[in-house]
Specification:
It is a single chain. The protein is an alpha+beta fold. The chain has a single domain, classed as Irregular (Factor Xa Inhibitor).
Length: about 60
């Protein structure tokens, strides 16, 4: 039986917590920051949890 390889790009960007949630960083926080408010940029710096509907697919990709 063949094995499924870990999707390395996803494994570097997402991590799975002990309870099975997928932790990620926000996007849209590197370019064109002059157009965004300080509050918006501050909130984008923080990590976030992926919705459960999407998390199932990403857990399969990173196999954790």
């Amino acid at each position: 039986m063949g094995k499924v390889k870990t999707h390395r790009a996803s494994a570097k960007r997402f991590s799975v917590t002990g309870t099975g949630k997928v932790k990620m960083f926000h996007n849209q926080h590197r370019h064109k920051t002059g157009l965004k408010s300080s509050k918006r940029k501050r909130n984008l710096r923080k990590g976030a949890y992926m919705s459960e509907a999407m998390a199932k697919n990403y857990r399969a990709m990173i196999q954790e």
